[in-house]
Write a structure and sequence with these properties.
- With about 180 residues, the protein is of the alpha/beta class.
- The chain has one domain: Double Stranded RNA Binding Domain.
- Strands 1-6-5-4-2-3 form a six-stranded mixed sheet.
- A hairpin with a 4-residue loop joins β5 and β6.
Length: about 180
C-alpha cells in the first residue's frame, strides 16, 4: 500500500525535476578536503574579467552568496575559498523540419505546413570557480548552460540567474559518488 502512495509522489517529483532547462557539469580536485572549507570571498580580478553587465554580475554574486550561505559557509576575509566567475554567450539557432500533415498516407495536397521553422535564442554558460585561497589552486568548477532571458521583466531575469546558480552549486561540495 505504501508503494502505491509513494509512486504518484515520485512521479510528480521526477516530472518537475526533469523540467529544469539548465545543463550542469562539474569537476573537482579529488585530493581536496572539502570539509576544510568553511568561508569564502569573491575574487575580484576574476570577476572583473567576466564580460557581462555589472548588473548581471551583481545578480550572479548575490545568488552565489545566498547559495553558499545556505550551505553553512560564511563570507569572510581572509577566506578559505575564493569564488570567481566566467561567462560565455552564444546565439542558438534551431531549425525544425515541418514536413508533416494530416490524413492517411502520403498526398502532397492533403498535408499542411511544409518547410522549415527557425527559432533563435541566446544561450549562456556560467562558470563558477572555487579556488583554495592558501594554495591559490582551482579545486572545484561548476558550469551551467541555459537559455537566457534577454528581455522582459527584471524579476524574470533575476529568477533565471538564481535558478542557474542554484543548479550549478547543487553539485558542491562533491559527494563520494561523483
Amino acid at each position: 500500500m505504501k508503494r502505491l502512495k509513494l509512486t504518484p509522489l515520485l512521479l510528480l517529483v521526477l516530472v518537475f525535476t526533469s523540467c529544469t532547462t539548465v545543463r550542469v557539469v562539474s569537476d573537482y580536485d579529488r585530493e581536496a578536503n572539502f570539509d576544510e572549507y568553511k568561508s569564502y570571498a569573491f575574487y575580484k580580478p576574476g570577476i572583473d574579467k567576466a564580460q557581462i553587465s555589472d548588473l548581471d554580475k551583481k545578480r550572479i554574486l548575490r545568488a552565489i552568496d545566498a547559495e553558499l550561505s545556505a550551505k553553512g559557509m560564511t563570507k569572510a576575509e581572509p577566506a578559505d575559498l575564493l569564488v570567481s566567475i566566467f561567462t560565455k554567450e552564444r546565439e542558438r539557432v534551431d531549425v525544425y523540419n515541418n514536413n508533416f500533415g494530416w490524413g492517411w498516407g502520403w498526398n502532397p495536397w492533403w498535408y499542411g505546413s511544409w518547410g522549415n521553422t527557425v527559432s533563435r535564442s541566446t544561450e549562456g554558460s556560467l562558470y563558477i570557480d572555487l579556488i583554495d585561497a592558501k594554495k591559490n589552486e582551482l579545486i572545484w568548477q561548476g558550469i551551467g548552460t541555459a537559455k537566457l532571458i534577454t528581455s522582459g521583466k527584471v524579476e524574470q531575469k533575476e529568477e533565471r540567474i538564481r535558478e542557474i546558480v542554484r543548479e550549478i552549486l547543487m553539485t558542491y561540495p562533491p559527494s563520494a559518488d561523483q
